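Record now logged underneath.
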Amino acid sequence: MADQNDSFIREVNDELRSEQMQRVWRRLGPLFIGIAVLIVVGTAGYRLYDYYTDDRSSKSGDRFLAATKLASDGKNDEALKALTDLEKDGFGAYPVLARLRAASLMAEKGDAKAAIDAFTAIGKDNSVPQVIRDVSHIRAAWLLIDNGTYDQVSAEVEALATPTQGLRHSAREALGLAAYKAGQMERAREWFQQITEDPEAPRNVANRAQIMLDNIAAAGKAP
């Protein structure tokens, strides 16, 4: 009799649990299904986006390499057109790299003004990574040594000549050469001396600065 009672109780408990589970499933089942669907859709979407971005980046990279190859083959006009097109519809970092390479190609072609304008524009573009903006200022300044004034060179790179700037050595050298060319020997001496006194200055840059200091001293053009 006790066994029968235990069996009956278990059956009742099982039935109650079954009904409870059904009620829980009716109430929460759609939510669980929705979450599962979202996980599947989200994963698929991420994979699709990842493939899409990788594919676009790869195609832009191929276009950039092709434009670079045209430039190395001396097909400058074709290379510039390819780079300009990549600036407009390239993906990722390639539009910026295309702008930088196009400006360099203009300088190589001898069009200093166009190159300076292009580098200056990149340097002022806040959407461009800071390191590329700084490099563009340096490139513009070096072109301006022979194609501009000391003040123009200073406007490009004097802010980069401070002790905390990684490109300070190139900036100081450009400023020193621009000042020397302009006949501002005391100012030139100051810039070159900053290079030679900086323990982190690359040896080749420090050597060139010392040569310029020796020339200035030999000519007696600065105190």
